[in-house]
UniProtKB/TrEMBL annotation, chain A:
It comes from Pararhodobacter oceanensis. InterPro entries: Bac_transglu_N (IPR013589), Papain-like_cys_pep_sf (IPR038765), Transglutaminase-like (IPR002931). Residues 158-222 form the Transglutaminase-like domain. The lineage of its organism: Bacteria, Pseudomonadati, Pseudomonadota, Alphaproteobacteria, Rhodobacterales. Gene3D superfamilies: 3.10.620.30. This is Transglutaminase. Coiled coil: none annotated. It holds the Pfam family Transglut_core.
UniProtKB/TrEMBL annotation, chain B:
It comes from the Bacteria. Residues 74-451 form the Circularly permuted ATP-grasp type domain. It holds the Pfam family CP_ATPgrasp_2. SUPFAM superfamilies: Glutathione synthetase ATP-binding domain-like. InterPro entries: ATP-dep_Glu-Cys_Ligase-2, CP_ATPgrasp_2, UCP005522. Gene3D superfamilies: 3.30.1490.270, 3.40.50.11290. This is Circularly permuted ATP-grasp type 2 domain-containing protein.
């Protein structure tokens, strides 16, 4: 599927900002599931200071704000051709060893609630079905609705609440899979949902490494494995590792954020 | 053999005659009188107060700043002893750098099963953000302070590698300065190798480690957590001696893809940052987001190849005491040679057999936390009470993987000057090595730490140790 994506993130500040940095993970990488064509990241009110590949292979751009600016606009856009590989990505990407994806992080530290979720069978042939069941159970326990959790809510706290979003679902899922001894990682990306162009936000799902299959994707929030409507942007052990935009600002100004995302065929 | 004779005395052989490196000093000392010496000792103390070397001791409320006692009797090492030591240190440092590069990249040593994966996977000092990256010149440990102990004429052991942030070099320099002031005549008769080139060499070594893209003379700066840090004096001392800026996190920002410091003429790019801020606080954008001490974005600039951070983040993996126990195998793996300097025998309490041995022999052993440093959280079996031993045994059973144990070492002695003349005290040695693409440079000297309490084997300044000037003689 040929997807045309335009993703704009706009910060406006109540007062001019002297210094702020944004770390961007907004350049999807080519893989067996997707081929990235033309892709651009444009900045208004700031500039790209440094670009590199991080320890997961994610492409990072570090952006600084123009001193005295009262708005910063980040626009990522381009074309991605996706393939339907029924969620199977295959062998490892990047240098991070599998054991690294067995380790909890601050955001994915399992507590009582996560430990109470069912474990995945050690029998390889039953694992995919078990993981789908786990995914269904997480969604049932924590129905999708925004506002109940924040960007820094740990998986354990999210699970104890009433509702959650894709970030919470994916983090709970990876935390639980790791308890069963399965390497698991968090994926941020784009999803063309319900045949509509305008999307609410970037999406997040999980990938688990299974013997014989390699990395297999699970989108808990939608109860499916990712197909050709999904574009992977970044991976990591948790949402912070793979956050599309992550920033830090000096001074007292308040900021408001507006995100506009179009994914069309 | 009496207990005192069980320890190797560096100054006097068992027949009371001076060992060869001490012959000149012994002859000079015989002509001194105690009163003059005691007066010199007071002068030295005043000299130190003036120059301001003090040391903050964590956990002592009433002693926020305290002078580390300095003893006037030098520790003397012969040229041939030093040659062997420095070869051993250089080999070890090369092995450590190869190890750090490997575990952050291909992890061949884990694949080969030489070092167990858990040792790295469960190591808090392992920084994932360093994976799949080569720092400039492939150097991780630009500055190393290897702790060495001696137990006999030819028996030297490495106790700790201190690959992360070795401190104490300012004492090496100040101790020599003090001795030159107090006893200039000694240095005209005894051929002692100078240590005063250290700041110049440090600056050269850091400059040589600048990123490949750096044009012109590299700009070096020292990053300090600030005046409340226990080693702040050393940070400002080294900046002053090297002639480079001492900066804090809030002085720096990302400018044109580099880290730059605020100056009266605008922002100036820093090519090499000798940072004395711990990894966790180094970059709030990558590590601890609440850190006020670090430089936001420095890890991004680093991975983009636009700055050298010395020592490299994540180097602390090599200081883990469980990793230490594998250093001989690590050296063999990367250099193909046996280790020149020996390790102290180390029991890994994570291994059930070793744990049992340690529990059975606790009163004879020294037990340390694998991530600990500076003598905090350790048990010195022979000096512990029954209650302390039993409390510590509980800790060991609860978290065996957190501890290693070593036999109590018969540390060599060098005399200190006391009210009743010379008296033997136990010492260790921390030489300082600089690593750059041009090679390893080891200053002929170092910091000798001395346990001032009679019979004590703990030399840490945080536990009541003092220091001595360390002489390496010319060949």
């Amino acid at each position: 599927m040929e997807l045309s994506i335009s993703h704009t993130t706009e910060y406006t500040y109540t007062a001019p900002v002297d210094y702020a940095l944004q770390k961007l993970r907004l350049r999807p990488l080519s893989s067996v599931m997707q081929q990235v064509g033309q892709w651009e990241v444009e900045i208004d009110g700031g500039k790209i200071e440094a670009s590199y590949r991080d320890h997961y292979g994610n492409h990072i751009d570090l952006v600084s704000i123009e001193p005295g600016a009262s708005a910063l606009t980040i626009r990522a856009s381009g074309q991605v051709r996706t393939l339907n590989s029924t969620g199977v990505l295959g062998s490892v990407m990047g240098r991070a060893p599998l054991w690294h994806f067995l380790q909890p992080t601050a955001l994915t530290m399992p507590g009582e609630a996560i430990k109470a979720l069912p474990r995945v069978a050690s029998d390889v042939s039953a694992q995919v079905a078990d993981l789908h069941r786990l995914s269904d159970m997480i969604l049932k326990t924590l129905p999708y609705m925004s506002g109940g959790t924040a960007v820094d809510t740990p998986a354990e706290d999210a699970l104890k609440g009433e509702t959650g979003v894709c970030q919470d679902h994916a983090q709970i899922f990876v935390a639980t899979a790791r308890l069963s001894g399965l390497p698991a990682r968090y994926v941020s990306g784009y999803l063309r949902i319900n045949e509509q162009v305008q999307q609410e936000a970037t999406h997040a799902w999980a990938e688990v490494f299974l013997q014989g299959l390699g990395w297999v994707g699970f989108d808990v929030s939608n109860g499916v494995s990712p197909d050709e409507k999904y574009v992977r942007i970044a991976i990591g052990r948790d949402a912070r590792d793979a956050a599309p935009v992550e920033g830090l600002r000096m001074g007292d100004a308040d900021e408001s954020l507006m995100v506009s995302l179009q994914v069309q065929q | 053999m009496t207990k005192e004779n069980a320890y190797f005395s560096e100054m006097h052989a068992s027949d009371g005659e001076p060992r060869s490196p001490y012959i000149g000093y012994d002859a000079w000392f015989a002509k001194q009188n105690n009163e003059r010496f005691a007066k010199k000792s007071q002068e030295a103390k005043a000299f130190f107060r003036r120059t301001g070397i003090t040391f903050n001791v964590y956990g002592q409320q009433d002693a926020e700043e305290r002078l580390i006692p300095f003893d006037l009797v030098p520790r003397i090492i012969a040229a041939r002893e030093w040659t062997k030591l420095s070869k051993g240190i250089e080999q070890r440092i090369r092995g450590l750098n190869a190890f750090l590069h490997d575990i952050y990249n291909r992890q061949e040593i884990l694949r080969a099963g030489v070092v167990p994966v858990e040792l790295i996977a469960q190591n808090d000092a392992f920084l994932p953000q360093m994976m799949d990256f080569c720092p400039p010149g492939n150097i991780y440990t630009h500055i190393v302070g290897t702790d060495i102990v001696r137990t006999g004429e030819n028996d030297f052991f490495v106790l700790e590698d201190n690959a992360r942030t070795p401190s104490g070099v300012s004492y090496m320099l100040e101790n020599r300065e003090t001795m030159l002031q107090m006893f200039p005549e000694l240095f005209s008769t005894i051929p002692v190798q100078p240590v005063s080139d250290y700041p110049k060499n440090l600056r050269r070594s850091l400059e040589a480690s600048a990123p490949p893209g750096c044009k012109g003379r590299p700009c070096v700066a020292i990053l300090t957590p600030g005046i409340h840090n226990s080693a702040y004096y050393e940070h400002s001392f080294l900046a002053d001696q090297m002639g480079v800026e001492l900066v804090e996190g809030h002085d720096l920002r990302v400018v044109d893809g580099h880290i730059a410091m605020r100056t009266t003429k605008g922002y100036k790019t820093i090519d090499v940052l000798y940072r004395r801020v711990d990894d966790e606080y180094l970059d709030p954008l990558t590590f601890n987001p609440s850190s006020m001490l670090g430089v936001p974005g420095i890890m991004d600039v680093y991975r983009a190849g636009n700055i050298t951070i010395a020592n490299a983040p994540g180097t602390g993996v090599a200081d883990d005491k469980a990793v230490y126990s594998y250093i001989p195998e690590i050296i063999k793996f990367y250099t193909g040679e046996p280790a020149i300097l020996k390790n102290v025998q180390t029991f890994r309490c994570s291994e059930p057999q070793s744990l049992q041995y340690v529990l059975d022999n606790l009163a004879d052993l020294v037990v340390k936390e694998v991530h600990g440093s500076g003598g905090y959280g350790m048990l010195v079996g022979p000096a512990a009470s029954k209650q302390e031993l039993s409390d510590f045994a509980d800790k060991l059973r609860a978290r065996p993987g957190n501890y290693i144990a070593q036999p109590t070492l018969a540390l060599s002695t060098v005399p200190i000057f006391t009210d009743s003349g010379l008296a033997p005290r136990h010492v260790d040695l921390r030489p300082f090595a600089l690593v750059s693409p041009n090679g390893v440079n080891i200053t002929s000297g170092g910091l000798t730490r001395v346990a001032l309490t009679e019979g004590s084997l703990v030399v840490n300044s945080s536990q009541g140790g003092g220091t001595k000037d360390t002489w390496v003689l010319e060949d």
